[in-house]
Every structure is written in C-alpha cells, then in structure tokens.
Design a protein that fits this description.
151 residues; mainly alpha; Arc Repressor Mutant, subunit A; two-stranded antiparallel ribbon; 66% helix
Length: 151
C-alpha cells in the first residue's frame, strides 16, 4: 500500500495543530503554579537574562513598554521578582528573580521536559534529526520569502 502524499497545506495544518497541543499540554501544567501565561513567559526570559531592563524586555518580547510594566508590577506584587535601580543609569530598573520566582522557573523546566518527552515518545533520534533539518529549511525558506534575515 502506497503512503498518501501530504500537501504543503496539510503539513502546515498538522504543524500548527501540534504547536497548539504542545502549548495546551504545557499551559495545563503551568496553570498549577498560579501565574498567568504572560507572566510566565517574562519570568522564563528573566531567568536567562537576569538583571535586564524593562526596555530590553519589551524589545526582546516584542511588546509595548506599558505591557511590560503591567506584567512586571504583577510579578513584583506576587513576590517573583524585584526591581533594582540600575547602577549605570538611574532612569532604568534592572529586574532580579527572587527565590519564589526561581521555584517557578525550576518547576517550569520540569514541565517542559515532561511535555517534550511525552511529545517525542517513540520517535527515534534519526527521525528527530530529520525533522529538525526540515524545520531549519522551512525557517530559512520563510525568512527568504518575507525578506527577513535568517537567524
């Protein structure tokens, strides 16, 4: 029996559905931590780039300064972060994760691992490597199509 050839539209649909299912599975776990999705995204970025400014956060996350300020205020009120005046420029605050924030980051990393392992269960290393090569080519093609720099 011959395998059915998938159209590019079907492949894209499957990819987007997989992304939604992955996000839903992860968010189901994160919801137990008591923080909102936007707060979680910001906290995870801060774990990688602690001491960054609110302005740098807005640029990296591609959101407005106001949106960053609201989320920072909520994270600070929850005890997950603290703002410290920048030593270089008093107009800026650097953001530091507290112990409570680090607990969220640690739990999140475990959740990511659990969801990723569940998603790739039964898929060989060779198949995953082939998939990665396909994703890299797709990203390159889309960047070229839209005139963006390939990263």
């Amino acid at each position: 029996m011959e395998k059915q050839k998938r159209s590019p539209r079907e492949v894209c649909g499957m990819f987007m559905k997989t992304d939604r299912l992955h996000r839903k599975a992860f968010e189901g776990l994160v919801s137990r931590l008591g923080i909102h999705r936007s707060q979680h995204i910001m906290l995870m970025h801060l774990a990688k780039d602690e001491g960054t400014s609110q302005k740098a956060l807005a640029e990296h996350l591609q959101i407005s300064d106001a949106a960053v300020a609201v989320t920072i205020k909520k994270l600070e009120a929850g005890g997950y972060i603290e703002k410290l005046a920048s030593e270089k420029d008093g107009r800026y605050n650097n953001i530091k994760i507290t112990g409570k924030g680090r607990e969220i980051v640690s739990a999140s990393e475990k959740f990511f691992t659990a969801v990723d392992l569940a998603m790739t269960k039964g898929i060989s290393d060779e198949m995953l490597e082939c998939f990665v090569l396909c994703l890299e080519m797709m990203q390159k093609n889309l960047c070229e199509f839209s005139g963006e720099e390939v990263k």
